[in-house]
Write a structure and sequence with these properties.
The protein is an alpha/beta fold. The chain has 13 helices and ten strands.
Length: 321
């Protein structure tokens, strides 16, 4: 496993992060065996959220049973719209409410990394930054940032923090993968860094040094290897509605075909190729991955050992240009 040191996170952060939005964890089931194997393989960082059903409770139960909280990095998220709501929920009150609920569900007094799950550009950044700093001062959260926040809003938040001698956003979690989102899959302003069209955003991240935790690192199942690029109809049946809406398109199928060719050449799997591509990008991001079995996760981890040269990396994402 590879690790990175993140500002004000007291433990090294694994480059591959386990995403807890899996069916079993969303239902709050006992997943101790899977988490044991993933943790033993070196993954010490877990991405969870108030919006992920009972996933926080499942993760917390495992940490308590194993007595491993001091060895685990928790990335928690809040301020997500309530189920069925069409209204943003990004306010100081919502942030505080969700932090307290996450602490209780996880059975801990501290969240290593905290992110606002969505943004509401109509809300001034000042009160949000102030609330996050208060929670940090109270010892309830460590470093913080935003998931699905535009780089412009993060910059605005950090300018406010700088002007008021406060901590700013050091971390961010946008969608980022070998394939692009053709449209917002989940709503409420999903932010994607993938593709040539988002090169300016990636340049901003490199310049500012804000750490990226890339969610949907396998295109929400599009790069799972469970269907071929030539099987568009099968893909439409395999992917859920979010995957179809966000990723199923001719351009991404062409990208998948290139990943299949590289996988054959390297004696690897498509997910390994896709994750290796992401992990070798200039942003040096963390890759948030979900898996329903430890076996699948342990296979994906092998992406860390898969090397590609610059021409292969460029061809994977851009093809023959």
């Amino acid at each position: 496993m590879e690790y990175k040191n993140i500002t004000d996170v007291k433990k090294p952060v694994s480059r591959i992060v386990f995403g807890t939005a899996t069916p079993a964890m969303l239902r709050g089931e006992n997943v101790f065996r899977m988490l044991d194997e993933v943790f033993a393989a070196g993954i010490n960082t877990f991405d969870t959220a108030r919006a992920y059903g009972m996933a926080e409770k499942a993760l917390g139960a495992w940490m308590t049973a194993r007595g491993c909280r001091d060895k685990v990095v928790i990335l928690a998220k809040g301020a997500h719209p309530l189920p069925g709501s069409k209204e943003p929920r990004v306010t100081p009150g919502a942030i505080r409410e969700d932090v307290e609920k996450s602490l209780k569900m996880l059975g801990t007094s501290f969240l290593d990394i905290y992110m606002l799950h969505r943004d509401n550009p109509r809300v001034p950044v000042g009160p949000l930054v102030e609330t996050l700093n208060e929670l940090r001062e109270e010892g309830k959260i460590g470093t913080f940032g935003g998931s699905n926040w535009s780089y412009g809003r993060i910059d605005e938040a950090n300018e406010y923090a700088y002007a008021h001698d406060m901590f700013g956003f050091d971390v961010s979690s946008p969608a980022y993968s070998l394939v692009r989102q053709k449209e917002d899959p989940w709503g409420f302003g999903c932010v994607d860094l993938s593709g040539r069209e988002h090169s300016a955003e990636r340049a901003w991240y490199q310049d500012k040094g804000v750490e990226v935790f890339a969610y949907a690192s396998l295109g929400h199942g599009f790069l799972s290897g469970k269907f071929l690029a030539s099987e568009a109809k099968r893909a439409a049946k395999f992917l859920d509605g979010y995957g179809v809406k966000g990723y199923l398109c001719p351009q991404n199928l062409q990208c998948l075909a290139r990943a299949e060719k590289i996988a054959h050449k390297k004696h690897a799997t498509v997910p390994q190729v896709a994750l290796a591509w992401l992990l070798q990008q200039p942003l040096n991001p963390m890759a948030v991955c979900s898996a329903s079995t430890a076996r699948k996760m342990l296979s994906d981890i092998k992406a860390l050992d898969l090397e590609m040269d610059e021409s292969e990396l460029n061809w994977l994402s851009e093809g023959d240009t």
